[in-house]
Amino acid sequence: MRRKVGTFLPVAATPNKTTASTADPSRDTAVQRSMGFGLLAEHLRCLDRPRILDLGAPVGANLDFYSGLRAKLFVEDLAQSSALGGDPTGAAGGDVTAALQDYGDTRFHVMLAWDLFNYMEFHALTALIAHLSRYCENDALLFGLVCVRGSIAARPTRFEIRGDQALAYVLESQGRRRCPQHGIAELLRCLPQFVVVRTFLLRNGMQEYVFRYQGG
Prior knowledge:
- By secondary structure, the chain is α/β, with parallel strands linked by helices.
- The chain has a single domain, classed as Rossmann fold, CATH 3.40.50.150.
- It is 18% helix and 31% strand.
- The chain contains 4 helices and 12 strands.
- The chain has a 7-stranded mixed sheet with strand order 1-4-3-5-6-12-11, with helices on one face. Strands 2-9-8 form a 3-stranded antiparallel sheet. The chain has a two-stranded antiparallel sheet with strand order 7-10.
């Protein structure tokens, strides 16, 4: 069932099949230690009822994790957008912001972009960050993974939280597509109100970034 993009999920309750997806054992899955996500988890555990924007799919394991934090959570599932990963044959530079909602006066402490930056060209990524910056709390953290290799899976990877410092990578497609290979200088041009807190290069060819919002 296709999920509605831009959904507020009250994670205090146990997720059910209508709001969360579970791992398909037929898909390729690999568990990777994540120091970058570990920094986010540490930050979240210091907050009372943190506000989180997850741009990935509403995965059951992730909702369980957020529930333990008593978080206010919004899930966008941008991989379903035809401008991003919904159509693997389409351009990677579509207008993703058209799929996003207005969060009103909500200001997020943490935003998780997962590997979505890999599926966006410079102008599309810049537009996305400009939109999200309007809803950042001071010192909000943004988490993203950037591939340093020449190709990526045809569709964005599904990430499942397996503890404070571990993520499961669940491939949604066996096909491949070109990777923009955004470097740090290009990323910072796309994120003018953010600074890099930490970055970690992983053995699987992904580089984790934790950014901090300093837009005031």
